[in-house]
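Run folding on both entries below.
>entry_1
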Amino acid sequence: MSSESEKEPDGRHRVVVIGGGMAGARLAQQLAVASEAAGAGAAAAPAVTVIGEEPHAPYNRVLLAEVLAGRYAPEVVALPTPAAHHLRGVRAVRIDRGPRTVHCDDGRLVPYDTLVLATGSNPVLPPLRGLFETGGTSWGHRPAAVLGDRFGGGRELPDGVHAFRTMDDCLTLAASVRPGVRAVVIGGGLLGVSAARALAQRGAQVVLAHQGEHLMERQVDAHAAGLLRTHLEAMGVEVHTECRVRGLRTDLVACADPAGAQPAPMATGTSGTRPADTATDTGDARPADAADAPRPARGADRGHRAPRAGRAPAPRAVRAVVLADGFALDTDIVVFACGVRPRVGLAHAAGLDVARGVLVDDELRTSDPYIHAIGDCAEHDGVVYGLAGPAQEQADVLARAIAARLRDPGPHQAGNQVGNQRGDAAAHRYRGTRALTRLTLSAPPAAAPPAADALADAPADALSATATAADAAAGGPLDLATFGEATPAPGDDVVQLSDATRGAYRKVVVRQDRLVGGILLGDLGTVGALARAWEGDAPLPAAPLLHLLTNDGGS
């Protein structure tokens, strides 16, 4: 078992970051900036180690849909590599809080003075029938993100079934797409809409199945969702809302028995050897409950032999997505875009306070004074953001706090450590993020890919796509910006402007004299003024509310 040096040769403070994604990369970058701004020389700057499971350099995951669409090559969305010691392709498996050491899967021990969890989140895989090999013991009873590894128990998805969260997910999916291939995207939120659009641009025949009443219900109202749906359908995407998916139908693509006989491929998954459930239940928009999942296979009475211990299950390939009413959507590819869940297993095993995410205070400190958490895995003031913008803001705040503490380090005993953090970092507190989400469904054909540095400084939750022939049918690019509470509460004032001929829609929600939310679709000329009014949380001027939607104020 190898170990990093117990102390840096130059005595520098050791900051270890678990997670090499956007939050971890931003923190490492900003630690260097903050240390320089605080007047710390090279000898006083912290020694930063970033432990990342992915083999890739950090990248802007907000733009993964652009890589899938073919607009950007993977290297274009790469983020600047911060000056730090990077352990790529290495997984942290345990935190030993006593000696303050991180244990890695390659046997390495990495000691820390300050540890930062930036472990991100896992894609949610609903407990659908046929998703995992039925010979397992818990294949469909728990979402994958709450299990030990990414999909739990070393299980593999059937061929053609994809999560869409990492660069490897994106590249694997892109390699399987060709003109005319049939694809079903499950989930019509921001990620699902982006994935469906990207696949359509690659020439796939796309069906978007969403369990909610309308697309992107967390960000937009029914009117804006209707315009969004019209635009997607003009690009060739078939959209189904209030659509409950019950399971997958798969084929065994290789199933040799011990005697050497090779049975013909046969259907498994949703129906096993019996017909799919044909009971009509389209009103229930939820995924099939865990109780609906079939029991594990019982050998020959299920039509095939259950996998023996130690034998890898026969590979399977998806053939259809089966809905609750029994209707089957034939497909070659399934993409899950059903949301994410914070990765908290490491923190939970270490005994840190965990709710939905790792609980942190205004200094982004966990229940252990030596450990912080930022990004998708962190829960601050009851909120798990799951967005790139808040993750970057948290990284910036924490970098300034660490740099300020190191400027006047004081004793490093546990009791004094807490006092120093509370005192020195008092001016560097995280108060939450008022995030604005932007989505662009098309872009001018001649648009050149921006440089990597420009992407790193781009709005955190901005997404864009390449123009296609469908753009003309869809009326050109469709821009969307949402912020705050788009659904009014009783007593709120609402101002709406709609232009059906231009596919434009604007709506703001005002509570007393404060702007609390809004939706801009089609024309973002007023987004700058509205975003500043919302982010500043200042009283609105006495001008009529309509002024909010007609004054561009600089965007």
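>entry_2
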Amino acid sequence: MSKKAQRLESKKRKAVAFLQLVQDKEKTKDTTCCTPDKQARTEEVSNHGNKSAEMDEETRARIRAVREWKKASMERPKLYLTLDDLDDDGVRPPLFVQDLQHLILFGLEGNITSFKPRWCKLLRCTKVSGVVVVVLNDVGQSDYEAYKDSFSHLDALFDMCISLTSPSQYGSTVDQEMFNLPVSISELLRRNVPLKNAKEISYGATPQYIQKLITINHKIAELPDEDVFPRTHLLLSSSQMSAEKYPLPLESQSDKLKDFVFTCDKYEEVTASSPMFAVDCEMCKTSEKTSELTWVSLVNEDLEVLYETLVKPYTRITNYLTRYSGVSEKMLSTITTRLEDVQRHIQKILPPDAILCGQSLNADLMALRMFHPYVIDTSVIYNLTGLSNVKPSLRKLSSIFLGKLIQDGQSGHNPSEDAIATMELVKLKLRQGLHYGDVRMGNINFPQQVSRQPDQQDASEGCGTTAKTAAVEDESNGCQNTSEKSNQISETVNRESEKTVTTKSAVPSDSHHTKSIPDIPHMIEKRKNFFEHLGYNFNNSFFEKLKKCNKKAAMIDCAEVLERYKVIDETLQRVETSSDKTSKSEAKECVKSKEFVWTQLHAYNRLLESNTNITDEDRMSCLKKLDRRMSKILRAVSPNSVCVVVMTGRTDGNTVNNAMGFVRIKI
């Protein structure tokens, strides 16, 4: 017998023996008498089994109902807020009407949209059947809080609301903010727009297929010789500045930024020939647990240091951050320059259309405690990872694209060196094209030279200053040259201050530099001037977007508003109304056949303009009527629609009334 056969026979014998043991155990169990307790338990289990069998049908019905409810819920879109994710050390950045616009476009276009909301999540966006926007003109947050009983329908319908920056703060309107959106550079590239020959695009000779896509928003100007596209394309928009935590002169940030000043009394429109300046600041930690300015440098396009100085904070310094800032206690011991002195010098140097460049420039402006509308941020225009929230360091950008090693010593950073590197990076991008240095635009061919040779001349040499080449010794190493460094910087500042700065700016009045907070109307005018030219270089039509995704739209409003959109083609149904009652009736009909419906109710605006002696009863009566009409419109909306109610807010006299937004999915 083979070994294999022997193994099989052995297994058979074991199996037979195991079965025999099982049979013997069963016989023993059957012959054993059960105790009374065991019999009682057996009967109880049996009775419970019978009851379970009787309830089985009812349980199955409940399970089926739950499953059907879950299945139906997966066929509906879901919306929830993510505002807490925006908080930065307990401070929430302001939201704009454009943030609502992003939600609306996400609901209408789905995942293909370039605009996704940062303040909320919309799940199963493809299930959205339509979007309805009801605007309550001139109603603001203070009205909602003061006359809350007038909004019974609004409170019953909506459980999600957000506070918005009213466009009236900077001379705009809700419809203008809603229906203009930026043309992304990737979209221009997809349409084969010759960005390297951007003179044709931006200044008058625009091809017809581009004219349908964009609206020119800046003055006609010639490109500088080395630039292949307008530098205005690199400017951050107001929403980008908000997302990047730039200081903005908004009412919602007035407490936090109350001591901030503007870089200019009155700004002019920026063009492709507007001068660029790079700024870099070094900071320290103070007893107020904040970062305060200790060293600043301002550089022009020719890489000349126009202004550089050490600055002494008013509050006690707890950490000089010498390893990074290059500033030590000994260096500041003889310094008398204060923050307001720096602000005055910068205001004298910068013209009304100056473009400020910097690496994470928001931190520099916060340290300078200044507002500026035209900014280029190298941490935004260069992207090495494809992720917008991952910022490349200036050291890495300089090494890769300039072939220079900066911030390489043990004595801390030099702001002039950093500012010069920043300006060189901006000028390099202007020479190479919009796609250069940005993997999001498909450019992954970075320069091969990632470090300079020891004998290579630094590009920052020969720029007309000696201060930026001096070494700063760390305090832990004895600070042997700190006195010389301080004196050298002071001499440079004095020498540069005596120079005639060839810019078109005028010296601001003394009153502009005081720390007193300007009156509200004056601040509103400055806000409007700050934002009025701070737009996108190219604007795409909101309704053009809807046309591309085959969405029908209706706009129900007064003649004044509809006049702004009279060039829109037949895909937009424009319904002119003269009363809110008519607007309500037209909107109820349009929501049955249109994917996007906009209507604006003006009764409160007319009340405020018609009479200066308005009683609380008048306001409450008008707001209740608006509330009822709004609810009747939304009741006619089809299921799975995104419903949006916008209170525009307003600015009147010494009061700024914030806007509000209410959102929900109709089930």
